[in-house]
């Protein structure tokens, strides 16, 4: 008798020569066809022919009674006369062990299968349905008599019985391999199997288990004097006996009804077949245009009808009908206006006095600021940079982070992964012709034997890689995952070559003659991909399929690029080296990192013209991100250098070439830039003192932000002074004080708005956003302080130098020239005389409003279409080896990352009720944990759960059954006795009675569970749980109870960010459903899913809400601060907030057009966009607010002329040059999230601040106030 193993299990294919029978019909004629065993089968020494015997059944010896009761209790009646002896029963029991362990999960199926073979082997009425057709003489040396061996038989089987047996077994699962067991017994895929070819395969010598030909003949009617065996059967929805129940839903579709159907996909929101948002915004825009244009034309026509002159009265502010008319009779000022006036004058007085003081005492001010900078920057000694992706993207208080910590603390951290994806671009597929018959089987290019040998050489070279750490030499064997250690120290290597135990001799093993090859590596491969946990294949090779590490190698993990489940068509090989992870042991972690570094270097330098290799290591992403940051330092430096040069040159107001070296302000520009950079350094230093780690986003983004804010303020101060004329009898410090009193409130408004907005942004739960907000808020605030202190003092010194005709940079050189003459700059003149009047023309303003509202409408229509997530390839440099790896992942892999459904501590596994909530076998609830995951896997395209879960509790129940030889212990010591041990003192764990056949509960459950977890799989027992489940259960209370445990399965292939997000969301929904079912009044019970990528992608589950929260908070802060600092001009604050909101919404429109996804990086940029937008808007609005012109149009024109040029030169031109340089970066993330988004921020900010906002103010700006007289000096 032989065994066949199938996917993750050892499944027996009993030759039709040895079978038990439970006869349910009355015995009419009782005589045998065979009895006892004769000679051994040639080439199969462990199998024997049966001896020909045509007499009546022979009473069984009493020492065989227990065997009959155990194996075939239906035959235990009368004097137990059978057509088999005790030796046959003993052999039968040994061969039933493995099928018992795996098929007994559906007792009805196993009952029918045993019924089929029992009738053939031991039935007292064999001659009714079996006919011996070939014989061979045999001399028995023991009995010293001649006997006859039967070498072929015909077996007449009822069609009804065959169909009923197949229907009861067709759904039975092999849990550890996530496949149907019938696929093995049929010799082909389960989907191609039926009742006839299943039994034919079982009885065929082609399965390499049946010792002689047995020909099944199917009929429900007597044929040639034979009565077909047509015994009663049990349906899978029926109980096989009084102890067990019907098969579970997993193993019997009748029990659970039809296959679940996924809910229909959510229909897109459409109107008349078009996207609803587009239609709504188009209609809204059309309505707005009609109302707006109608209002403008109506007002124009009304004025034209009433006024004789067509143009003059319309623009005449004294005309009653003029749109620009000012109501002179404004009445007494409101309370808020009075407070605002006093507040405005107080700010002017304060900043004027302060500016005068700084210019009068430059050295003490400069010295004190340098001391302040030095104190803050000394914190840089404590600076820590966080590069760990978990720390960067996941908050310690987030759900995914807590679940990761829980998993790591109870089961150990998820292993580190080193992976290769190998293709053979220059090879073609080959065909394999099975012996003795069968159609050709195509084999993919990488499955050619010579290629496999080359891959094995590569695999061996990787195992022999040596790395040095300290004084140690580190090899893979020192850090790899070895699940059976210390009994088996072989590393886990998930590779197709582990079907051949990574051995060249096994790979080359073949059996044949000079004409034919009967079996070779093709045969072995085709068997192992269907039964990866088999200890021996069923071919003539008899080679094992189990990996050298003691576990199965599932084909979907080691092969890629195949269609459906035709693994032989694979176009890629996948090799994975799991390495132990050590989160809390830096020494061991550093050893692993050292080996991984050598692993990467080895593969970068590996050359083989036949192999194309994509690879990745656990450290690869972090390494490549760091390399990307370092490689882009030159790009960033050039970008900032361009901005520095522009600032230094643009600050100067050159009147002539002769005064070039006097009027230039290179030294002042450099000082201003150093102040900006010092504010960034101070911010980093302060938070380094506080122990807050720095991130790469802070380093890359904040200098850009602070430079935009700081340079804008510098230009405003300098250019306002350059346009100002010193009053009679006014000293320099009074003039600069007066200028500062004029512009500093505007600077204070923008800086305080940004600071408060950023600090409120620190309330975000996203670490990247929170860290950026903290550092940015502090940097902006310090930058403002340094500008109104140190920079004002430096400006006073520089003006004195200029007035004394000394050269810039070389102040000791004095030029004999006349003093400078004040004049407006070219840019200011352009804004004042050309740009501002044009933008505010009567016919231009409506066009501007219509255009910007149109852009806003478009952006609102597409805002919900912006992708969420971050494509892994974008985060890598263009020349990174990881780009090829990510492409190969998407092209070839057929299994996604593993996912663990963790049952937290608190569930009671020792009670039947608690077991039924979790298990998936007989008697388990139809909505149990395992069953719900199995059901989800049935609709994997929707749930993204690829396979049914591995269930330790179901395997434990099979392992502990008394019919099995798995669970035994020494009756002398009580210690566990492995199934392979032959020792009379080894006894069953549980008695072979009704009570013993039930599931263990209470103390019994916990008594044998540690034995199960320590048992290694072997040929006698394939259910040992050491390799598969040693880390799946957290035993507590001195191993007297089960704490946390997990049930593992795999996601489907996940390629894009949306795939990962959807998989995580569906897994959480599934876990929540399981929790709701299992709670049963225990509110502390919880089930959660865990996969290694969840901690990174959780942010996307709430990123829309986070974005609304952060941006809304920033806008709220800007509104409040603007209202206060504009003297309670709430309407002006509304207009500022509205304009910034439009910029943000338009940014989403740009993100959709430019394929920029919403993630932590882009959200940081959006928060920064709020800050920079304040600079574009607040200065214009404040200038409009304090303008003394009469009409709104004139005030808007005045504000745009005076502040527009400074904003344009200070932000737009400064940033534009630096941003263009970023376009040449090799980094995709720089090109997408910095070049594209920064360019959009600057262009949209400039367009709204310098075009739309002045026009908006000219229509609905705050009415003019009558302020108190300005401070005079």
Summed up, what is this model?
The chain has 43 helices and 29 strands. A hairpin with an 8-residue loop joins strand 14 (430-432) and strand 15 (441-443).
Describe this structure in words.
InterPro entries: HMGCR/SNAP/NPC1-like_SSD, NPC1-like, NPC1_MLD, NPC1_N, SSD. Residues 1-29 form the signal peptide. One of its GO terms (biological process) is cholesterol metabolic process. Residues 632-797 form the SSD domain. It is built from 43 helices and 29 strands. The chain has 1273 residues and is of the alpha+beta class. The strands form eleven sheets. Strands 1, 2, 5, 6 and 9 form a five-stranded mixed beta sheet that branches. It is elongated. The termini are far apart.
Summarize the amount of helix as a percent range. 40-55%
Q: Provide the low-confidence segments as ranges.
A: 1-28, 308-331, 1266-1273
Task: Please describe the biggest sheet, giving its number of strands, its sense, and whether it closes into a barrel.
Answer: 5 strands, mixed
- DSSP helix count? 43
Question: Rg, please?
Answer: 42 Å
Structural class per helix/strand content? alpha+beta
How many beta strands in the DSSP annotation? 29
Percent of sequence in beta strands? 5-15%
Shape: elongated
CA-CA gap between termini = 113 Å
Question: Could you report the average pLDDT, rounded to the nearest whole number?
Answer: 83
Signal peptide: 1-29
Transmembrane segments: 269-302, 363-383, 633-654, 666-690, 696-718, 739-760, 772-797, 1107-1126, 1133-1154, 1160-1178, 1199-1225, 1237-1260
Protein name: Niemann-Pick disease, type C1
Domain SSD: 632-797
């Amino acid at each position: 008798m032989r065994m066949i193993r199938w996917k993750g299990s050892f499944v027996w294919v009993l030759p039709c020569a040895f079978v038990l029978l439970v006869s349910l019909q009355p015995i009419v004629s009782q005589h045998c066809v065979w009895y006892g065993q004769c000679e051994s089968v040639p080439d199969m020494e462990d199998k024997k022919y049966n001896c020909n015997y045509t007499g009546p059944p022979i009473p069984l010896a009493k020492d065989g009674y227990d065997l009959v009761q155990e194996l075939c209790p239906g035959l235990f009646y009368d004097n137990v006369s059978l057509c088999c002896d005790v030796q046959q029963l003993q052999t039968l029991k040994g061969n039933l062990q493995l099928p018992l362990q795996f098929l007994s999960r559906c007792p009805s199926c196993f009952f029918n299968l045993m019924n089929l073979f029992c009738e053939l082997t031991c039935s007292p009425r064999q001659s009714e349905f079996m006919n011996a057709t070939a014989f061979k003489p045999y001399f028995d040396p023991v009995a010293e008599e001649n006997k006859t061996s039967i070498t072929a038989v015909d077996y007449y089987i009822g069609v009804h019985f065959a169909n009923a047996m197949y229907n009861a077994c067709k759904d039975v699962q092999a849990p550890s391999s996530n496949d149907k067991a019938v696929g093995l017994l049929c010799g082909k895929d389960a989907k191609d199997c039926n009742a006839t070819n299943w039994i034919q395969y079982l009885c065929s010598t082609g399965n390499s288990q049946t010792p002689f030909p047995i020909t099944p003949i199917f009929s429900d009617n007597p044929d040639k004097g034979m009565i077909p065996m047509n015994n009663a059967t049990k349906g899978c929805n029926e109980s096989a006996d009084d102890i067990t129940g019907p098969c579970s839903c997993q193993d019997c579709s009748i029990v659970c009804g039809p296959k679940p159907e996924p809910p229909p996909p959510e229909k897109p929101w459409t109107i008349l077949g078009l996207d609803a948002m587009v239609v709504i915004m188009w209609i809204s825009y059309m309505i707005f245009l009609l109302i707006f244009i109608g209002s403008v034309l109506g007002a124009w026509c009304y004025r034209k009808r009433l006024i004789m002159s067509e143009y003059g009265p319309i623009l005449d502010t004294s005309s009653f009908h003029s749109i620009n008319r000012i109501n002179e009779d404004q009445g007494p000022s409101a309370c808020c206006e009075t407070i605002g006036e006093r507040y405005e004058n107080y700010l002017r007085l304060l900043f004027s006095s302060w500016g005068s003081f700084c210019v009068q005492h430059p050295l003490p001010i400069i010295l004190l600021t340098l001391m302040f900078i030095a104190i803050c920057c000394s914190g840089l000694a404590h600076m820590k940079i966080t590069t760990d992706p978990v720390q960067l993207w996941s908050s310690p208080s987030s759900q995914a982070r807590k679940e990761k910590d829980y998993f790591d603390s109870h089961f150990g951290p998820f292993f580190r992964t080193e992976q290769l994806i190998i293709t053979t671009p220059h090879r073609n597929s080959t065909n394999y012709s099975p012996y003795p018959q069968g159609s050709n089987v195509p084999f993919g290019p990488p499955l050619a034997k010579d290629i496999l040998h080359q891959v094995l050489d590569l695999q061996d070279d990787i195992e022999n890689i040596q790395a040095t750490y300290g004084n140690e030499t580190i090899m893979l064997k020192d850090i790899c995952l070895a699940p059976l250690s210390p009994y088996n120290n072989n590393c886990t290597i998930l590779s197709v070559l582990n079907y051949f135990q990574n051995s060249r001799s096994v790979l080359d093993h073949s059996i044949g003659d000079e004409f034919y090859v009967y079996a070779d590596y093709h045969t072995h491969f085709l068997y192992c991909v269907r039964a990866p946990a088999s200890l021996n294949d069923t071919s003539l090779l008899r080679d094992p399929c189990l990996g050298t590490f003691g576990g199965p190698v599932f084909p979907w993990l080691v092969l890629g690029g195949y269609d459906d489940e035709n693994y032989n068509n694979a176009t890629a090989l996948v090799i994975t080296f799991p390495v132990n992870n050590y989160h809390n042991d830096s020494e061991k972690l550093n050893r692993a990192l050292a080996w991984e570094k050598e692993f990467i270097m080895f593969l970068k330098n590996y050359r083989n013209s036949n192999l194309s290799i994509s690879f990745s290591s656990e450290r690869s992403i972090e390494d490549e991100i760091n390399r990307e940051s370092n490689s882009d330092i030159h790009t960033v430096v050039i970008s900032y250098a361009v901005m520095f040069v522009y600032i230094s040159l643009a600050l100067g107001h050159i009147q002539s070439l002769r005064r070039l070296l006097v009027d230039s302000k290179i030294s002042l520009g450099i000082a201003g830039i150093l102040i900006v950079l010092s504010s960034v350094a101070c911010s980093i230093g302060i938070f380094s003192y506080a122990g807050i780690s720095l991130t790469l986003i802070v380093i890359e983004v904040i200098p850009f932000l602070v430079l935009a804010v700081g340079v804008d303020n510098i230009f405003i101060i300098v250019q306002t002074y350059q346009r100002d004329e010193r009053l009679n009898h006014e000293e320099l410090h009074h003039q600069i004080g007066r200028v500062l009193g004029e512009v500093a409130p505007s600077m204070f408004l923008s800086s305080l708005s940004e600071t408060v907005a950023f600090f409120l942004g620190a309330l975000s739960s996203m670490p990247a956003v929170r860290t950026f907000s903290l550092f940015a808020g502090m940097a902006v605030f310090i930058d403002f302080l340094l500008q109104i202190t140190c920079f004002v003092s430096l400006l006073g010194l520089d003006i004195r130098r200029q007035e004394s005709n000394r050269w810039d940079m070389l102040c000791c050189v004095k030029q004999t020239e006349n003093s400078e003459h004040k004049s407006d700059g070219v840019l200011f003149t352009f804004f004042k005389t050309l740009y501002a009047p044009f933008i505010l023309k009567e016919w231009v303003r409506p066009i501007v409003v219509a255009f910007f509202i149109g852009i806003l409408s478009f952006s609102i229509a597409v805002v919900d279409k912006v992708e969420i997530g971050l494509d892994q390839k974008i985060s890598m440099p263009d020349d990174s080896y990881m780009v090829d790896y990510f492409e190969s992942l998407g092209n070839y892999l057929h299994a996604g990352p593993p996912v663990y459904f963790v049952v937290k501590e608190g569930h009671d596994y020792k009670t039947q009720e608690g077991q039924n909530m979790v298990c998936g076998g007989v008697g388990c609830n139809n909505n149990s944990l395992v069953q719900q995951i199995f059901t989800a896997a049935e609709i994997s395209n929707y749930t993204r759960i690829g396979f049914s879960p591995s269930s330790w509790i179901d395997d434990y129940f099979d392992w502990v059954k008394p019919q099995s030889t798995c669970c035994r212990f020494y009756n002398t010591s009580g210690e566990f006795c492995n199934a392979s041990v032959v020792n009379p003192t080894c006894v069953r764990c549980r008695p072979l009675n009704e009570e013993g056949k039930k599931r263990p509960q209470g103390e019994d459950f916990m008594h044998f569970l540690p034995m199960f977890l320590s048992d290694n799989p072997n040929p006698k027992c394939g259910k040992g749980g050491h390799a598969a489940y040693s880390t799946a259960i957290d035993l507590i209370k001195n191993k007297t109870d089960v704490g946390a445990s997990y049930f593992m399965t795999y996601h489907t292939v996940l390629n894009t960010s949306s795939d990962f997000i959807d998989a995580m969301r569906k897994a959480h929904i599934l876990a929540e459903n399981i929790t709701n079912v299992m709670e049963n009044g225990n509110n502390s019970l919880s089930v959660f899913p865990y996969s290694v990528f969840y901690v990174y992608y959780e942010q996307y589950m709430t990123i829309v809400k986070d974005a609304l929260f952060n941006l809304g908070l920033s806008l709220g802060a800007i509104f409040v601060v603007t209202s206060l600092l504009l003297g309670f001009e709430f309407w002006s604050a509304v207009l500022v907030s509205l304009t910034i909101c439009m910029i943000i919404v338009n940014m989403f429109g740009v993100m959709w057009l430019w394929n920029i996804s919403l993630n932590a990086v882009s959200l940081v940029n959006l928060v920064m966009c709020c800050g920079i937008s304040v600079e574009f808007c607040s200065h214009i609005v404040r200038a409009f607010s304090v303008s003394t012109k009469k009409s709104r149009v004139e005030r808007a024109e005045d504000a745009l002329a005076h502040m527009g040029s400074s904003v344009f030169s200070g932000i737009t031109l400064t940033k534009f040059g630096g941003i263009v340089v970023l376009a040449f970066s090799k980094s995709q993330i720089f090109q997408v999230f910095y070049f594209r988004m920064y360019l959009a921020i600057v262009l949209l900010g400039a367009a709204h601040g310098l075009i739309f906002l002045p026009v908006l103010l000219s229509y609905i700006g705050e009415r003019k106030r009558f302020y108190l007289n300005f401070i005079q000096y």
